[in-house]
């Protein structure tokens, strides 16, 4: 079972690595990082490099696609090579998915037209401009269309666990959760916009610049 994770300049690291850590626990899964060219791609702050092992034209029928987000998505909204690849492989996938602003790329490829979807709270307006209908949920599923979208960054782990359940079974998904000891107990309860006060929202806006 091949899982393709596309990489691009200025992707958000956890968007890709979170699902990777979950999915690579399943023996049947082979993960390939795919991109415009072979070689290293740097994350959104430039501090981390991840290697693309294959080009888009070398990965033609992945079973699953997980599109990460990051500020680099904005310059790819009219990138013919990436968007054409998504359109070409989606009819053959078991699931096509996104994390954070990766949903912008699914929308730009026309895969979310008329569907509800989620993304990072800072990209809601752009997602809706691209044809999707935003809902404030951590993971949004459209199983008949074989599409899942997840909200900002850390929600990709939740989505990947759900993917394992759909691809294998519940027990395997629970075992993967145990293997990564995913038992969130954050020190603050402000991980979504409705839970954050105005001062925290303003600080978050400053950090996004």
UniProtKB/TrEMBL annotation:
It holds the Pfam family DJ-1_PfpI. InterPro entries: Class_I_gatase-like, DJ-1/PfpI, INH-QAR. SUPFAM superfamilies: Class I glutamine amidotransferase-like. It comes from the Bacteria. Transmembrane segments: none annotated. GO terms for biological process: regulation of DNA-templated transcription. Residues 2-165 form the DJ-1/PfpI domain. PANTHER family: ARAC-FAMILY TRANSCRIPTIONAL REGULATOR, DJ-1_PFPI DOMAIN-CONTAINING PROTEIN. This is DJ-1/PfpI domain-containing protein.
